[in-house]
Amino acid sequence: MKNQDQVILREIQKNTHMGLEAIDALMPRVRDEHFARELAKESMMYGNYYEKATNELLKEEKRLYKDVKGKDMMLRMGIWMQTFKDSSTSHMAELMIQGANRGITDMYKILNHNKHANGNISAMAKELMDMEEKTITKLRDYL
């Protein structure tokens, strides 16, 4: 496995981990049943991509993405602060859209800097970006 493949796979892990953490932090504040179901679906999709990337890295016994515990805490604290005054479904959907947009942007950067990666791994990253684009479209209904 090339180094570029590993970089992309770890970015997929990072991206999906952040999505999973954000959803987990928001769920206790969600009051809209339909929105909660949408977030649960997203969580499952993020989990699937996280697992795929992890399995690819484990096949070659390569180093996995290691989350810095402080980042998780900062993310949760940021979400708590953002939803303290406004825990409306609209505001939470906006936060998820912003996070998905950041994830897409980060993934584009990684792909652009690792153009010689394995086609299957690049395709997995592009699938994740497509999933996030579709998610953004669905979340717009809650704004």
Write the layout of secondary structure elements.
Elements: H1 3-26, H2 33-59, H3 69-84, H4 89-113, H5 119-139
Describe this structure in words.
The structure is a single chain. This protein is mostly helical and 143 residues long. The chain is built from 5 helices and no strands. The protein has helices at residues 3-26, 33-59, 69-84, 89-113, 119-139. Helix 4 runs antiparallel to helix 5 (119-139). The radius of gyration is 15 Å and the shape is elongated.
Short description:
With 143 residues, this protein is mainly alpha-helical.
Overall, the morphology is: elongated
Number of strands: 0
Query: Helical amount among residues, as a percent range?
Result: over 70%
Helical stretch count?
A: 5
* Estimated share of beta-strand residues: under 5%
Q: CATH class, anyone?
A: Mainly Alpha
Largest sheet: none
Total of domains: 1
Q: CATH H-level name... which superfamily?
A: Ferritin, core subunit, four-helix bundle
> What's the end-to-end separation, in Å?
42 Å
CATH topology: Ferritin
Unreliable residue runs: none
Rg calc = 15 Å
Mean pLDDT: 92
CATH architecture: Up-down Bundle
Keywords:
5 helices; single chain; elongated; 143 residues; mainly alpha; Ferritin
